[in-house]
Every structure is written in structure tokens, then in C-alpha cells.
Design a protein that fits this description.
It is globular, with a radius of gyration of 22 Å. The protein is built from 19 helices and no strands.
Length: 475
Amino acid sequence: MSNNNNNANGLVPMGQKIAFGLGMLANQMFPAALGIFMVVLVENLGMPTWMWGITFFLPRILDAFIDPIMGFISDNTRSKWGRRRQYVFIGAIIMGISFVVMWQLFRESGIDYNFYYFLFWSIVFYIGLSIFSVPFVAMGYEMSDDFHERTSIMAISQWIGQWAWVIAPWFWVVMYDPSWFPNADTATRTLAVWVGISCMILAMIPAIFIKSKSTLEETSFSPLTFKTMGGSLKEIFSSFVEAFKNKPFRKLCIATFLIFNAFNTVAGFTFFIVVYYLFNGVSADAGIWPTLFGCLGALSTTFVVIPIVSWMSKKIEKKKTFLICQGISILGYILLWFLFIPGKPYMFIFALPFFSFGIGSLFTMMMSMTADVCDMDELTSGKRREGIFGAIYWWMVKFGFAIAGLLTGVIMSFVDFHPGAATQSEGAVDGLRLFFSGIPILGTLIAMWVMRNYDLTEAKAKEIKEQLIAKRGEL
């Protein structure tokens, strides 16, 4: 039941891996574009930073609480299409349409109207994201039961998905080049149409091409209906608690929460640091340098980090690979403090390969290890709960992402930084730089400490697999 698409030896055809990777490209392009476009709210449409923080926080909080419910629904769906595909398809449509609509913002509508309009459509978008992403991620977990093939699946999907972070930073060039558009908010309205429609199509691909066997005859679970809703919601809560009691899984969630959301708390500062520290607040002078930061970092991840991570995990185990990569990323954050040099913007490029090891390795390793945890859970619970585990894992990511968005606004207010202002108060930009390096370093160090005694090794995973085969044979 765990792997519908693989051969007996656990290997998955490359076409299936690519189909999953194209879904991952959509899954990453939406937040990548969103992160770029969000600058427009404060820089061009005049929203105060507290409104900006709320638009980050509230939709993501709602999304985080929907995820476990969506995971349970997905795990317990009886359908001739299997447990996941129909939700991936429907979620893709909702995401694509709502993304286009929510960026149709006009200055003349006023700050208050734009705030409530954007907040409403953000909520719709994030509901669609939950419907899509939870079953989609679960698809990846159940594609293979082989320890190393899982890493291969996630490495290929992350390699494809990373192109979102190569492409998205170039939106800054288009948005702020007057030869393309008269202003950034006009550019955003147009770019949103292209991003929304293209990513909607990409997100549909896994639903169309990744095959799943029918679950119409399954009797090992009870689908969620209005009649069973009370009991099902109770089971969702109990499944959430059971999953989080799994010690290796808990470590994966906490470590990801710390690393990813420390990074996201300060990621929005990149544009402001480049423009205001390196180019004295003149966006036109900054040219493509904000774009190059994101683009070259993503290229480093795509062509350096992911291949190295995939190779290392087969040689020295997944945990050691994770710890080494995160240690390298700390060096990168330290280098960025010294290599942001006014008049020499090219210097930060030397820090990017080191910096990229943090986020670049994170999801390749963590998603592979979560798939191992699902086997461990089946051995003790007798249930396949990829949807629940995926939902809880991404619940931690999204809940933290919501907090990160709120903290971004809080930090800018704390250091007295005002986006769009011609001049900044003394120390404001240096304050952003201090948080830009300091928060990710702190989060990564704590995450490494949490993961120091993670014990779901390759030997243990193989032993669990053998026990599951024997157990299923007895049934």
C-alpha cells in the first residue's frame, strides 16, 4: 500500500520522478514569486509594516491548521483514482486562479481596500495550497520503500523545484525596469497572470501522470463523511498527537522549523540590504544585484548542493549529511556579514555557495527521512499515514512561516527601518544586517543540537522494511 509506483526492488521510473519534480516546481514557484511580489505592498502600495506582517501571518496560520485535516482526508479517501490525485488536481486550480486574482491591486483603491482585498484572496490561495500540497507531498513519500531511492526522488524533485528560485529573482529586474513596466505594481499584476496559469498547469502534472491504484475496496480506514465527522475529527487530533510522539519525526519537525523559518524571517531583508546598504537606497542603481543574490544562490543549490547532498547521504548516512551541510551554511551567513561591501557588490557572490547549503540541503534530506519515519509508524500503528505525517511536517513549516512573516515586520519596526523612505535612521540598515546573519545562525545551531542523536539509521530502516514485508505477508 505504501508504494504504488515502484518496481519490486523499490526503484521508480525517471518519468515518475520528473512528474513529481514538476509538481515541486509549482509548489516552490508560488512562494518564490510571493516573496518577491510582497515587497510591492510596502514599497509601492504604501502599506504600513504592521499590515504587511498580518498579510504574512493570518493566511499561513489558517493554512497550517487546515493541513492536518487535509492529511487525514487524503489518507482515508476511497476512490478509483487513489488517495491523492484528485485533491492535487483540484488544489492546483484553486491555487492558480486565486494567485492571479489576489495580485490585481491598484493604488487608487487605497491602502485599506487593498489590505482587506489581498488578505481575503490570500486566504483562498492558502486553502488551495493545503488541498494541493498535503496530498502532493504524501505522493512523494509513498513512491518508494527503498532507503536511498527516497533520497533520489527528493533530490530530483528539489533539483527541478530549485529552478523556481533561479527564475523568481529576475522578477525584480522586470518589476523595477521602466522599459518593461511603468511601476512595480503594474508589473506584478501582469506577472501574476503568467505565474498563476503556468504553475497551475505544472501542479496538475503529478495528478495526471503519477499513477495510483484504486482504494475503493480498502477497508483499513474510514473516509471522512458528515455522519462520521465527529469521530474523524477526534481521530485527526489523536493521529496528530501519535505522530508527534514519534521521536525521530519530532526531531525532523523541530529542526526544519528552526532552520527554514529563521531563514524566512530575514529573507525579505535581502532586497533592502542590497538597495539601502550597498546602493544608498537607490533601486535603479542596484540594478540586477538583488536578483543575482537569489538567482546565483539557487544555481549554487541546483548544480552544487543537491548533487553533493545526494552523493554524501549514500556514503555517510542522512543525519551526518544534514549536520555537515548546516555547518557549512553557518559559515556562509558569517561570510555574508563581511562580504556585503558598499561599492563592491560582487563580493557577496563568494559567500553564496556556502550560504546555499542550509536551505538547499534541508528538504532533500528531511523529506527523505520523513518517508523512513512513515515506515516506522506503520510498524507500530498498522496504518499508512503519509498524509498525516506530511501535513504535520508542513504544518510546522507553515506555522513557523506565519510567525516568520510577523517577525519580519516586527524586526523592521524594531530597527526603525522604513521601506520606500529615501533616507533611513542611523543604524537601521546595520540592524537589518545583524538580524540577517544572526537569526539563521542561531536557528541552525539549535537545529543541529536537536538532530545530534537522531537514530533512524539505514540499518534500522532496512530492519523495519523487512519486518513490514513479513507483517504484510502474514495479512
